[in-house]
Design brief:
Helix content of chain B: under 10%
Radius of gyration of chain B: 13 Å
Number of helices of chain A: 0
Number of strands of chain B: 11
Structural class of chain A: mainly beta
Oligomer: heterodimer
Radius of gyration of chain A: 14 Å
Strand content of chain B: over 45%
Shape of chain B: globular
Helix content of chain A: under 10%
Number of strands of chain A: 12
Largest interface: A-B, 17 and 22 residues
Amino acid sequence: AQTVTQSQPEMSVQEAETVTLSCTYDTSESDYYLFWYKQPPSRQMILVIRQEAYKQQNATENRFSVNFQKAAKSFSLKISDSQLGDAAMYFCAYQKKSSGDKLTFGTGTRLAVRP
Amino acid sequence: GAVVSQHPSRVICKSGTSVKIECRSLDFQATTMFWYRQFPKQSLMLMATSNEGSKATYEQGVEKDKFLINHASLTLSTLTVTSAHPEDSSFYICSASTRVANYGYTFGSGTRLTVV
């Protein structure tokens, strides 16, 4: 079974600084998707970034980028120029690459942004 | 973009009663609907997966007779918590998957259920 591990329950970053959230996963599949979701206090799940395992290039979305290390099964999220609105729970998630398969979530990292 | 409308956002019910939560895909057809449960400060735990027109597949440990899932159309899925008890109090979130955009996922806004 696939597992997703987030070893940092809480992280804190100064506004405008950079922070990296860690995620590791375990799978026997060779092709799959990885995601980072943000859950602000409203509890609405918001997709931050998505990575396809067969793509070597790391995904980026504006201030958000990932460091995808397939051999190490590591998928960290870097947030640059942190903003107060980035404060939230961040969940790493895995999806096997089959039609409409379920997401497996990590335990989450709570990110605080200090003004 | 794809939107999933989830209602109600909050509900309080008495022990022993049933509560129905609805998730509607507003501008796309949801091939598959996932129902999650989230306890305070914890992650999302998948309860069941439903495909339109077929029976839901429940995760191990989830009582199918207690958490009834109906996915009668490509735009509507419902979760009914039957004979609710205080331990059923939680945050429930639905997520729809669509063939459009490589089976991307769209989440509802969640329902906070409190059983008193």
